[in-house]
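Running low. Any example?
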Amino acid sequence: MKIGRWNLAPVPALIVGIVAISFSAIFIKWSEAPASILGMYRLLFTVLLMAPFTGRAVRREMRRIKPVDGGLLFLSGLFLGLHFLFWIESLRHTSVASSMIVLSLQPVLVAIGAYAVFRERTGGAALLGMGMALAGTVLIGWGDIGFSREAVYGDVLSLLGTLAVSVHMLIGQRLCAHIPSHVYSFLVFLTAAGVLAAYNLAAGIGMTAYPAREWGIFLLLAVVPTVFGHLLFNSLLRVVGATTVSMSILGEPVGAILLAYLLLGEGITDYQALGGALTLAGLAVFLKTKRTAPSPERPARESA
């Protein structure tokens, strides 16, 4: 796997990415800035950090991109922007545990989309795993109904964010088959930042009057979960495919919930524990029954 001029092995890159994105929810919880501002500066700072290393390659590839791929790049950026808008806002209304477990449904949604787009089939055991994961998420939501309506609202936002990022990853699987992953990431991050900037302008949300502490959090979100998380995952799309990357990110909810317990003092309810265990068990069954090796001849085509 290659990112710009660096060759990286998929497994170590994946481990680094999982650890990095586990901090995302913690940084967001520390911030008081609006969700759209957090998402916008997270992506904008990432683009600025990438520019010195990818600028020449981006200019070269831009001349080769076909109009249809340009449209898909915009859609990928649009859905990534929506993902950050919905998911970051969900953390304002529900716990890290609930939001992250709902987000862990991403591989199931990607698998469904992969069948529709790439005709990747899912066997009976994998379908059982999907059912277990969905049941676990329903259990988490049921527990939050007893907790507060606001928590349920947060769960719904997290689900919308999960749907958005699933579409983003499926588009990325197709585009990264013939566009270098670092170029794809740069253009998509820039597009998503532009989408969120347009939202902020339309909603009348101020974009500059934030204390130094918030700017530090914006930078942390760019460096840790985005550069060392999303950027690495985008690079893996061509190697192992969208569904396998999504399934492997199952370490994020576990890491985020543990960090929330240690750093934020958030407890875990019985419903969250039981629903989370059922969701992760179902997703583990799903992963065990799927193949992870993509075909070299087709865009990251794998049964996972």
